[in-house]
Amino acid sequence: MKKFIEDYPQFKKISGTVSKHVSLVGELSSLVQKHNLLEISELEQTIVSDGEQSKCLNQIRALFKNPKIRELDIIRLVLLYALRFQNMPGADLRSITNQLRQQHPKLDLIVDTVLKYGGTSKRPADLFGGQSTIDITKRFIKGLKGVENIYTQHSPYLKNIVEACQRGRLDNYPLLSNECDRVENIIIFIVGGVTYEEAAFVRSLNEKRAQGMGGPAVILAGNCMLNTESFLDEFTNYKSTKAV
């Protein structure tokens, strides 16, 4: 009885924590079902990974008719599609924005602004995998192995930067000197904000290092944590600033 009385406060604390976690998971599950987020997430991963342009376009148009899909999710899908297939024949971007003009009157303006800021002519590197022999070989091997989790197919471009820095192969410009030896400690600050995918990638690196699997210790920082809504707000401010 004495032992029970001594342990009861800790037991009650743990019980309360478990109850909160169960409630949180239940609410998340409800939101996923309510807004069809699994299907949306799968399509997002397909667009930014190795999805075919025509299939991605057809899937996006099919989702337009689903009343469960939120405006924010539609905008995100269209932006990803625009960034990935901007210069591809048959991308039909204008047709998509025209189709959605009544429900989303600002969509065409948002797409134009994002492409002017981060389109193919503005990006210093290929975010979606180039056509070099190495890139094609990597995609071929990935296709043979299959995908373990369709919801985590994409890796942020930050992965390429960290790996190049770790091996001493990063371009000279981002460094203070031309001597680029292998590094064990990396500090990254992203002006404009950090995405949750980038944060998850850095966390996985640090967890591997903590488990004795090697790799650099990475500290990631930025102006803020970005989600779709805050990202679009940034572009609204960007457009207003350019107008001034």
TrEMBL record:
GO terms for biological process: vesicle-mediated transport. Pfam families: Sec1. Belongs to the STXBP/unc-18/SEC1 family. This is Vacuolar protein sorting-associated protein 45.
